[in-house]
Fold this sequence. Notes:
Layout lengths: L3 H7 L2 E4 L8 H8 L3 E5 L5 H4 L6 E4 L4 H11 L3 H15 L4 H14 L1
Parallel strand pairs: 1-2, 2-3
Helix pairs in contact: 2-5
Amino acid sequence: QSQMPEIYAACDLFCLPSINETWGLAINEAMASGKALLASDSVGCAIDLVQDNYNGKTFESNSLIDLQNKLMDLTSDKKRLTEMGKNSQHLIKNYHINSQINAMLKEFIQK
Length: 111
């Protein structure tokens, strides 16, 4: 775990090709590290955190062809990956426990 910051720093794109992943905390970590994302649609957080063509893409789980196509598309332009990484960092910066608690309390109070 202590080596993960170095690993994130060494890459331009973070891919989580899980077949079954309840959340996928590594996506949060990669976003905080300013990385573009590629996640399978079986990664629980993908629906909330991966915005298509803004900070990455999702691909159809168990589809090697879709994974390959999305990888080739994303890695075809390093400048685009850098921009997507900045977008990831922007999206995740306020995603912490206090903001989540406040959102839940707000929903609870409104009901």
